[in-house]
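Need residues for this backbone.
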């Protein structure tokens, strides 16, 4: 296991408005309140979808319009927040883990598209979905693993960089 560092992109504030949803971290408007699987299932249910998380997942996979539109918004929000993390960590790639990226065929493309305007031109890095095995501990959250740049891209290497930065929105606050 390479050196890693865990961040909490799930608790980046993305909604500062009066309707921002409360978060488990006791603040409100966190990314996790909008883009985690639980938040998406709840929003879907409140928008007229019928059922629980499993029903939301099934609906999304079946192309349900409300579910898909919630996932589009989530991808945009994840990408916007990821841009900030990428600016800081300057990884070689971003790997999205957890359930959410599996619910929409172009989720990672949408995340990347939302991320790009917020990063440097040199940081047009690949965003991909985790393979089985990358997912340990990732379920339930908004999770991105950021792999270090390869040796063929040495210009951004720094002795202070962790070899791998793990950024996760999975709930870790007070639990
Ligand atoms: Zn929070």
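Answer:
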């Amino acid at each position: 296991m390479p050196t890693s560092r865990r961040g909490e992109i799930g608790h980046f504030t993305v909604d500062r408005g009066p309707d921002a949803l409360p978060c488990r971290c006791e603040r409100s408007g966190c990314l996790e309140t909008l883009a985690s699987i639980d938040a998406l299932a709840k929003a879907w249910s409140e928008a007229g979808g019928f059922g629980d998380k499993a029903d939301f997942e099934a609906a999304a996979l079946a192309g349900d319009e409300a579910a898909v539109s919630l996932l589009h918004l989530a991808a945009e929000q994840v990408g916007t927040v990821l841009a900030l993390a990428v600016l800081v960590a300057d990884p070689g790639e971003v790997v999205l883990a957890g359930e959410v990226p599996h619910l929409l065929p172009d989720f990672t493309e949408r995340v990347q598209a939302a991320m790009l305007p917020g990063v440097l031109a040199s940081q047009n890095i690949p965003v991909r979905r985790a393979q089985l095995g990358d997912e340990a501990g990732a379920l339930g959250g908004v999770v991105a693993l950021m792999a270090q740049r390869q040796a063929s891209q040495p210009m951004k290497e720094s002795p202070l960089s962790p070899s791998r930065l793990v950024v996760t929105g999975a709930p870790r606050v007070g639990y």
